[in-house]
Amino acid sequence: MSLPVIGFAGMTHLGLNSAVGSAAKGFEVVCFDPSEGLAADLAAGRLPVLEPQLAELRAEHADRLRFTADVRDLARCDVVYVAPDVPTDDRGGSDLGPLTALLDRVDAALGERTVRVVLSQVPPGFTRARVRPGVPLYYQVETLIFGRAIERVMHPERYIVGCEDPATPLPDAYAAYLGAFGCPILPMRYESAELAKISINCCLVASISVANTLGELCERIGADWSEIAPALKLDRRIGPYSYLSPGLGISGGNLERDLATVCRLADAAGTDAGVVRAWIDNSRHRKDWPLAELHRVVLPVIARPRIALWGLTYKEDTHSTKNSPALAFLDAVRPFPVRAFDPAIGPQAEWHPDLTAAADPVDACRGADVLAILTPWAEFRRQSPAAVAEALAGRVVIDPYRVLDPAACRAAGLTHLTLGAPA
Question: Three-state SS across the chain?
Fold first, then answer.
């Protein structure tokens, strides 16, 4: 039996990484986006997103990838994923309009027997509302991570598949595609699959909130969270892959969206979501940590400090700044001059009235009174604390993610402030 032809509609982060990963698994893939310019860029190898391995795999498997702005090209596919990113607003609300419009456009171009799969994240009830008799429609939970998207596409832990009737076997072409990845397949009703995605993110938020809450306590009582976390990871009830690193709240948009969705659903159903609202409050509290340290350590000594900033994206290995702690920090320090460096993006004038771009991390530090490292890029971990100390005019490094080695910072005479450890 020949391999099914797979289609992806929507060439944003989710659709593009999923399509390239599918080609790398040996499938012929048709990649549709309504933007002719984007389709042409992708065909030429110009990628709109930054992900490790994405450009290399796209080039290596170019013969199995066809990029098009003509929706009719999807008609030759056996399975078509509709996979645009779903944007969220500042309150975690989803804009489903673009997804619905793309679904309508794709649906009209496909034959009734073609398998349709919604891969974008949607609220419970969305998929069932689109069911038509005789047209195979599924919802599949995506668990991509910015900076690890290709890895997650190529090596999924399991597939969660929302079905109209979970007892009915999946269509042959769809089953063959999923089976090629060698992981468990969990069919369930649409609503269960849609809520499963939200449930996963709620568990992640719970781990993050534990780390942030107890990490802050460590800073006050002389404990060190980096010594505690390994003990928790060895507990089988918690596990080695738990989100146990303190951070600057929840960023990126997807987790915030799911917390907001749970609150809305709970309010409508008359159930309690107090713990979820507490997670949201804790996230907001921890996002202010770099600013609080600046006020605590630097501003009492220097009224108008010059700030060096490493990192602008919300996390490493991505170009996304959605809910970035660095941008929130920039907004709070508007009275002070800032010199910034990020490996993926340059600073933009609208982020800060006195923001300049540096050529490299050490260049950002020259003459600055304080360094804030707000994205844990691997490039920053390779920097020498001694070189940082030589470039800085001041001695303070605000390093929430422990990017620089604490002992090397102390040896260089730096005051190294990090989450989960006493100063």
Answer: CCCCCEEEECCCHHHHHHHHHHHHCCCCEEEECCCHHHHHHHHCCCCCCCCCCHHHHHHHCHHHEEEECCHHHHHHCCEEEECCCCCECCCCCECCHHHHHHHHHHHHHCCCCCEEEECCCCCCCCCHHHCCCCCCEEEECCCCCCCCHHHHHHCCCCEEEEECCCCCCCCHHHHHHHHCCCCCEEEEEHHHHHHHHHHHHHHHHHHHHHHHHHHHHHHHHCCCHHHHHHHHHCCCCCCCCCCCCCCCCCCCCHHHHHHHHHHHHHHHHCCCCHHHHHHHHHHHHHHCHHHHHHHHHHCCCCCCCCEEEECCCCCCCCCCCCCCHHHHHHHHCCCCCEEEECCCCCCCHHHCCCEEECCCHHHHHCCCCEEEECCCCHHHHCCCHHHHHHHCCCCEEECCCCCCCHHHHHHCCCEEECCCCCC
